[in-house]
């Protein structure tokens, strides 16, 4: 009996996955695809992806130069970035209508995430 129940359940699943419709002498089969839930991309995953694509500017000076050349789309600042640098970046980025995001990690962790042997206080994501 248990095997019969399993066979019936398997047949029911097959029937629910494939529905056939008859239309003017031929059969059309429609298969349902599984819906895959994707997790929203985290900031760290986004940074790693951008680093591989060489779409990052690392450091205060290079980010400021890139902002001046209008190459930056977004500026990321670590939580322990010096206030003077952060304020100056925010002012210039707001004038250039560039998004500024303060990260919840410090300079050392940001360097480790990007697999660099130094601390990173400021990052810029280039326009594509």
Describe, in plain words, how this protein is organized in 3D.
There is one protein chain. This protein has a domain of 84 residues: Ribosomal protein L30/S12 (60s Ribosomal Protein L30, Chain: A). 43% of the residues lie in helices and 23% in strands. The protein is built from five helices and six strands, in the order αββαβαβαβαβ. The strands form two sheets. A four-stranded mixed β-sheet has the order 3-6-4-5, with helices on both faces. A two-stranded antiparallel ribbon has the order 1-2. Helix 4 links the parallel strand 4 and strand 5. The termini are far apart.
Which H/E pattern describes the elements?
Answer: HEEHEHEHEHE
Task: Give the integer mean of the pLDDT values.
Answer: 77
CATH-assigned homologous superfamily of the domain at 43-126: Ribosomal protein L30/S12
Roughly how much helix do the residues carry, as a percent range? 40-55%
Number of strands: 6
Q: Count up the helices.
A: 5
Global geometry: elongated
Strand order of the largest sheet: 3-6-4-5
Range of strand content: 15-25%
Assign the CATH topology of the domain at 43-126: 60s Ribosomal Protein L30, Chain: A
Q: Provide the gyration radius in Å.
A: 26 Å
CATH class of the domain at 43-126, anyone? Alpha Beta
CATH-scheme architecture of the domain at 43-126: 2-Layer Sandwich
Let me know the largest β-sheet.
4 strands, mixed
Distance between the termini: 62 Å
Point out poorly predicted stretches.
17-23
- The chain-level structural class is alpha+beta
